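Supplementary Note 3. Input sequence used for the single-chain structure prediction.
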Amino acid sequence: MWSDAAKELSKFTEAVLTALDTDGYPLSVRVPARDFDPATGTLAVSLPADLHAAEGQANLLCHYHDDKLWSLDSTQVKGCLRRRDDGWVFAAEHFTPKSRWHMVSFLRRIHTSGQKYLDRRGLRRPAVNWAALSDIRRRAAK
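The predicted structure, written as discrete structure tokens, is reproduced below.
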């Protein structure tokens, strides 16, 4: 069932596991992405005790870009962190495979999210000084 998620995760050497600690604060650790089990949708993870991890919602995020921040690739698996025996396991609950409309959907979501942020605070969308950005780009190209 989780073979699509495993296939996407296998493109990356590591993932960032984000969960909450016992005080409700986020914690993030790097974990081996290729160890995700496609049959069970789980990933055994090693967490330092001093992080005080708590069971609950968690996610795995992998991303890649080149030195110029191009060639973007990413994948995310949502799930939960559970204590198992003397260790921890991430258990997948949701994965949306990429499609040709993946980026369009992503851009719509961040546009909507950004607008809601501004609306809640009674702010206008900031103006972009395109002339200054063009000047910086021109100077950087030299």
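The CA atoms of residues 22 and 54 lie 5 Å apart. The chain has two domains: 3-94, 102-141.
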